[in-house]
Amino acid sequence: MIEVGKGGIREVIDFHLSRFACYLIALNGDPRKPQIAYAQKYIAVQTRRQEVSDRLAADRERLELRKHGGGIQGAFRGGATSQCAEQALRSVP
Question: Over the stretch 14-60, which tens digit does the pLDDT of each residue have?
């Protein structure tokens, strides 16, 4: 129930939104509203953080491949690809 003009009361339907629905609302909302601007900034920062993390994991995997086999040929010869991928996944914070 919420108050409306002249002291009246009206029932309001409460919605439960999924994470994806909230994401879409925030991205498509009016950035002049402080809550929407904050949500858009948060999404941009988290997206960048994930991109950096993914790139770091890929770089670590490449370095491990170089250590174990000297390139693609060595990786396929000794099965280092799966070992390095497992190692990279364990070492990501």
Answer: 999 999 999 999 999 999 999 999 999 999 999 999 999 999 999 99
Residue in 88, 41, 80, 26 with CA at minimum distance from that of residue 60? 88
Structure tokens at 13: 């339907």
Give buried/exposed letters for 39-60 (b at 16+ CB in 10 A, else e): beeeeeeeeeeeeeeeeebeeb
Note whether 14 and 2 are within 8 A (CB).
Answer: no
Q: From CA 17, how far away is CA 5, in angstroms rounded?
A: 28
Contact by Cβ (8 Å): 74, 67: no
